[in-house]
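The material for today's practical consists of a large collection of protein records. There is nothing in a record beyond a sequence line and a structure line. Backbone structure tokens are a discrete shorthand for how the chain folds in space. Nothing more is needed to start thinking about how sequence determines fold. As an example, a complete record with its sequence and its structure tokens follows.
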Amino acid sequence: MIKCVILDDELLAISYLKLLCEQIENVEVVKAFNDPNIFLNEIGNIDCNLCILDIEMPGMNGLQVAELIPDSKKIIFTTAYKEYAAEAFDLNVVDYVRKPIKKERLIQAFQKARELVQNTQKKDFIEWNTNIGKTVIFTDQIAYIKTSEIDSRDKDIILNDGTNIVLKNLNFKNLLEMLPSKDFAQVNKKEIIALSSIKVFSTNEIITTITLDDVGFLKLQVGEIYRKKLSDLFGK
């Protein structure tokens, strides 16, 4: 499934593009924006794998916006101007679609995006410097991640078998981009949980399947800014 977000300063162009997307199988428009600044403020918290960006916009153009988007989100550019093509492909985007957009051409762009998204999703491990050297960690073995109490730049990982590993000098933003978004969620400013490790979820607290010798099942407090996204995951 391609879950896309649209950015175009013209409302008519947004409506037309949404209409075309609705006619294409396995494509969902999650949200649409007509302001680049609002888009950039929200895109990091939106569950999508593709951004469709208009290039020619007042204030900040699509090329500038693309440089600020997380690498995990693929990009298709749309524009009425052919002179941007070389710059667009320098940014390693999926495709460059000229306006007026035709459905057949958009289908081709989505097919390219689908192949790239599927290839990205097949990567089921992360590789990073840890307390035991450069290490490959398979994401389906990760139960829980928290900010290290010794050094906040580091992240402590607990695996399903209870093994502890320390990721060195890695922030949550970059770490979340490396993890499959469908399998992990940030609970508060200091903790990430694998969805498979959740036993009970309420709007304020998560009880996990992880057991600690001194307190029993690990309980996590849900931060206010993460509550809605977690609630959406569980349909609450």
Observations:
- Residues 125-233 form a domain with the OB fold (Dihydrolipoamide Acetyltransferase, E2P) fold (CATH 2.40.50.1020).
